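Reading a protein record of the kind used here takes only a little practice. The record below shows the convention in full:
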Amino acid sequence: MSKNPGEYSMRGESREMTVLFSDVRDFTSISEGLTPEGLKDLMNTYLTVMTEKVQEKRGTIDKYIGDAIMAFWGAPLADPDHATHALESAMAMQKGLRELDAPFAKRGWPLLHIGVGLNCGVMSVGDMGSKFRRSYTVMGDSVNLASRLEGLTKEYGVGILVSENIVKAAQSFVYREVDKVRVKGKLEGIAIFEPLGLQSDMGQEALQEVDRFHKALEAYRAQRWDDAEKLLKNLAYAAPETKLYKIYLERLAHFRRNPPPPNWDGVFIFTTK
């Protein structure tokens, strides 16, 4: 930016970008178990590593909100691969977090877990704020959806959730469709996905598991409860730690007792953020 100041602007504009939100799980209870100095050191260590993962892939840190991080790609410098770079950062953040386990344990700090939400689309970007304080930030419906996705990661027990926009823009990754949901503030249902890794890195067994779950999802939405249950039970038996399979088995049990209406579209409605 300093070498080519004419290539960017801080003025307000609409631009195709990707935004990321991350949040530490159970942060309130974690903070209550630390001294103020210990909490400061933990947060500084954590945020430093996470910021490095964002900046290594051309991301811009928008702000820290307590333990939360907001970052975006595609401004102030253009980035045609903003979705791919953002997703690479999200996965690097999860990996980098586990690399902190040993040094955290050595200092008596709790191990951290985070949820990350990603969405790409048209956003408003520029200097925004008041006459007293401004920041270069992004706003818009696409930004709000990324925040909602981050909140949903804990509902499904996954580390990262992305929108269909990300799936279309970053096609070198393998994704597991998690659900179709109607989030707070949205009238239409949206498909949400968990990125599992680069296609080139995925083994045949992992790909088969994804395929079996997608078939279970198809049977569930078609109200073929027996077919869906058989597939989900096999998946849950092979991977008992996967919360997602348990969620759908619970839904199946509910719908057997309380059949959905004839116009049911398979969309799950969330009323909270």
User: Anything to note?
Assistant: The first helix runs from residue 27 to 32.
